[in-house]
Automatic annotation (TrEMBL), chain A:
The chain crosses the membrane at residues 67-87, 93-115. GO terms for biological process: dolichol-linked oligosaccharide biosynthetic process. The keyword Transmembrane helix applies. It is found in: Endoplasmic reticulum membrane. The gene is Alg14. It comes from Erythrocercus mccallii. GO terms for cellular component: UDP-N-acetylglucosamine transferase complex. Belongs to the ALG14 family. It comes from the Eukaryota. This is UDP-N-acetylglucosamine transferase subunit ALG14. The lineage of its organism: Eukaryota, Metazoa, Chordata, Craniata, Vertebrata. Keywords: Endoplasmic reticulum, Membrane, Transferase, Transmembrane, Transmembrane helix. Forms with ALG13 the active heterodimeric UDP-N-acetylglucosamine transferase complex. Its main location: endoplasmic reticulum. It is a single-pass membrane protein. InterPro entries: Oligosacch_biosynth_Alg14.
TrEMBL record, chain B:
This is UDP-N-acetylglucosamine transferase subunit ALG13. Its EC number is 2.4.1.141. InterPro entries: Alg13-like (IPR039042), Glyco_trans_28_C (IPR007235). The keyword Thylakoid does not apply. Keywords: Endoplasmic reticulum, Glycosyltransferase, Transferase. One of its GO terms (biological process) is dolichol-linked oligosaccharide biosynthetic process. GO terms for cellular component: endoplasmic reticulum. It is found in: Endoplasmic reticulum. Belongs to the glycosyltransferase 28 family. Residues 1-85 form the Glycosyl transferase family 28 C-terminal domain. One of its GO terms (molecular function) is N-acetylglucosaminyldiphosphodolichol N-acetylglucosaminyltransferase activity. Coiled coil: none annotated.
Amino acid sequence: TGGHTTEILRLLSCLSESYSPRHYVLADSDKMSEAKIRSFEQKRAETFSESQFSLDRIPRSREVRQSWISSVVTTLYSILYSIPLTYKRKPDLILCNGPGTCVPVCLSAFLLGLLRIKRTIIVYVESICRVETLSLSGKILYYFSDYFIVQWPDLKKKYPKSVYLGRIV
Amino acid sequence: FRFKESLAEELQSADLVISHAGAGSCLETLEKGKPLIVVINDKLMDNHQLELAKQLHRDGYVLYCNCSTLVETLQSMDLSALKPFLPGQPEKFASFLDKVFGLQ
């Protein structure tokens, strides 16, 4: 959604064509991100003509201010929905930065890794908005990601297993 | 207007920006070198927006307030005291990922 999409596209901006094809996963209720992504990919195609990408949508795991109990139910539903998608794409790398949408996708990839179906490297970059505390997605994925990147030194102190590269968006 | 694909035009011609604390809005404004007053939304669940505004304010890049103190802030602001904002470095991230995948 919104801010997350802007941030993740900035993260992608310096990546080489080795990171291709790119499969974007969006929440079904997200109306704005698709345009931003297409615009980004269009510009990219000007430099890298072989550039490939796709867009998939999954049910949104959690609305802002949704209660905890109903969030668990909707997230479980999103995980079930994500498993066939992750199985189909079998990504080498999942890159995410915090919207609720990323939790089911990452957990489904983690599951496929446990089942020895596909080992995906999960890289989580906490949003630049998070200076002192982690988002809920971050708190969960701190334990499931291979690399957990934070953008402010306070978080590096609190979460010693994280990686600190300074501001990267 | 409610939604527009890009505010780049409006930002370019603005002398002062008053915005919510969303990362995109703040960063876009700061990167265009415009003075920014960030207004915090008290109603979002854990109000983490405050963290970024506080940090940007601590580092001297923005002024910040909430809806009720906005008028007061506008009346007493000193925009010349704001520091120029250095952009983030996504190339550091690309470099890090390349190392992870042995692409260097």
